[in-house]
Write a structure and sequence with these properties.
Strand content: under 5%
Largest sheet: none
Mean pLDDT: 88
Distance between the termini: 29 Å
Radius of gyration: 24 Å
Shape: flat
Number of helices: 11
Length: 362
């Protein structure tokens, strides 16, 4: 065996460990970003300074300058007029911490990537994907500021559309990092076929992602607090205000009643999808698959229950952020399950083709 063949699997494992660490940091970003939103801290820093912004205010004059910039925002004028310096510093540190962690995630990704690349310890088939992830991570920083900028003039919160893009890309990056880490641990280029059980698993993963996007619209419009009864909405299955706006697409994304109703329907759909996957795996009789789908189904039930409890308790911060965090974990679990099912499909197809080839007389 050549030295390269001996080194590459070990190298892939180290790359996998690195990607798991970065994925953990992205998960922390998702949680911290949620806390920044829930504490109404996201608009406290009104400038985008990718480099110099890493240094927080260090003197009374620095704090006075930042506070004066915030006083010029719509949020201060319409919602926080009369805020003290101490109150401003509280929300400032939340937003600064979120942005600083974003910078750390960037450094934790770029520096090891350069090291692995220059030392030729990065599997060649993995390099293009990591470059794409790096570019998407940089785009995410820009989208974060694009989102914040939407709330600085004539409103007291950010655009729900931009929030959905920001959260959606963060979740996609998290799932992609977990998937890529799994590939790196295997040390081989995956060859997937999107059919059969693998396609069902992929559909479940996509359904979870879309439900997260619907949740971003609920958060962006603060729509989780207008109907706090369950399973009905003010005594009705569909709220009375459902469909009031026109055209229909505006109602779907700007009517708070419709947004919450659609998020509820999405939750029911994800739960039903999980049930289908669990039943199909049980019927297949594969012990390994049974264990995986049992864990996936259990995590889905926990998330649905968290959504209901968060709703009826009027979205307190602790429950809301737990709900968002479990959503991220569920998406990661679904992506890894999808990868496993797609790989299993391929391996089963290869085995079937081998069995179909008649033995050669010898």
């Amino acid at each position: 065996m050549s030295s390269a063949a001996q080194i590459e699997p070990k190298t892939s494992r180290w790359v996998g460990v690195w990607l798991v660490i970065v994925a953990g940091m992205v998960f922390a970003m998702v949680v911290l970003g949620g806390l920044t939103r829930l504490t109404d801290s996201g608009l406290s820093i009104t400038e985008w300074r990718p480099v110099t912004g890493a240094i927080p205010p260090l003197s009374a004059d620095d704090w006075a300058r930042e506070f004066e910039l915030y006083r010029q925002s719509s949020e201060y004028a319409l919602q926080n007029a009369g805020m003290t310096m101490g109150e401003f510093q509280f929300i400032y540190w939340w937003e600064w911490g979120h942005r600083f962690l974003g910078r750390l995630v960037g450094a934790a990704f770029v520096l090891p990537l350069v090291f692995f690349w220059l030392t030729k310890r990065l599997p060649g088939w993995l390099a293009p994907r990591l470059v794409i992830l790096f570019l998407l991570g940089g785009l995410q920083g820009f989208i974060g500021w694009w989102m914040v900028a939407s709330g600085l003039v004539d409103r007291v919160d950010v655009s729900q559309y931009r929030l959905a893009v920001h959260l959606g890309l963060a979740m996609a990056l998290l799932a992609a990092l977990a998937w890529t880490a799994a590939d790196a641990f295997k040390g081989e280029r995956p060859q997937l076929r999107w059919s059969g059980p693998g396609a069902l698993a992929a559909g479940f993963m996509i359904a979870i992602f879309l439900q997260i996007i619907l949740g971003a619209f609920v958060a962006g419009l603060d729509a989780g607090r207008i109907y706090v009864d369950w399973p009905m909405m003010d005594g009705r299955f569909a709220p009375e205000a459902y469909g009031e706006m026109s055209p229909f697409w505006r109602d779907a994304f700007e009517n708070r009643a419709s947004v919450q109703f659609h998020h509820r329907l999405g939750g029911y759909s994800v739960a039903l999808f999980a049930l289908v996957i669990v039943v199909s795996a049980w019927r297949a009789g594969e012990e390994g698959s049974r264990r995986h789908v049992a864990m996936l189904g259990g995590l889905t039930l926990v998330q649905v229950a968290l959504g209901i409890v968060t709703l009826i308790h009027v979205s307190p911060i602790a429950l809301s952020i737990t709900h968002q965090g479990v959503a991220a974990l569920l998406l990661v679990a679904a992506s890894l399950f999808t990868r496993r099912r797609l790989m299993t499909d391929r391996h089963q197809q290869v085995a079937s083709r081998r069995e179909a080839v008649p033995a050669t007389p010898g």
